[in-house]
Amino acid sequence: QGQLVESGGGLAQPGGSLRLSCRASGIPFSIYEMGWYRQTPGKQRESVATKTGGGMTMYADSVKGRFIITRDNAKNTVDLQMNNLKPEDTAVYYCYAEGTASHLPNYWGQGTQVTVSS
C-alpha cells in the first residue's frame, strides 16, 4: 500500500518563502507522475505543479516563476520550493502521485497548511 507523507508549510509573510516536502513509500516512485495541488474552502482542488519521472514539468500560470518542483527518484521525494509568496497562495497543499498505467492506483497525501499573511 502506497503512502505519501508531507512536511513543511506553515506561516510566511508576503514575499517570503516556504518549502514543502513529500516522501513516498510503497510505490514504484520513478514511474509515477508526482505533483502538488492546493485547495481553499469552497473551491475545487487545483494543480500547482507536476513533474514526471522523466523530468517533464508543468506549473499553474499563477505560480510560474515563483514555485519550483523538484524530485529525487533515489530518495522517493518531491519538493515544492515556494518563493515570493502571495496571500492568494494560502491554501492546504497536497502531494499527489498519479499512476502512469491502468493498474497503478493514485495516492494523495494528508495535506499541509500554507498561510501567507503579514
Structure, explained:
This protein is mostly beta strands and 118 residues long. Helix content is 0%, strand content 51%. The protein contains no helices and eleven strands. The chain has strands spanning 3-8, 10-12, 18-25, 33-39, 46-51, 57-59, 67-72, 77-82, 91-98, 107-108, 112-116. Strand 4 and strand 5 (46-51) form a beta hairpin. The protein is globular, with a radius of gyration of 14 Å. The N and C termini lie far apart (41 Å).
Structural Rg = 14 Å
Supply the helix-strand structural class: mainly beta
- Strand residue percentage: over 45%
According to DSSP, the number of beta strands is: 11
Mean pLDDT: 96
Q: Helicity range of the residues?
A: under 10%
Element order: H for helix, E for strand: EEEEEEEEEEE
Q: Give the number of helices.
A: 0
Write a compact overview of the structure shown.
The chain contains no helices and eleven strands. By secondary structure, the chain is mostly beta strands.
What keywords describe this structure?
four-stranded antiparallel beta sheet, seven-stranded mixed beta sheet, mainly beta, 118 residues
Can you lay out the helices and strands and say which pair or pack?
Elements lengths: L2 E6 L1 E3 L5 E8 L7 E7 L6 E6 L5 E3 L7 E6 L4 E6 L8 E8 L8 E2 L3 E5 L2
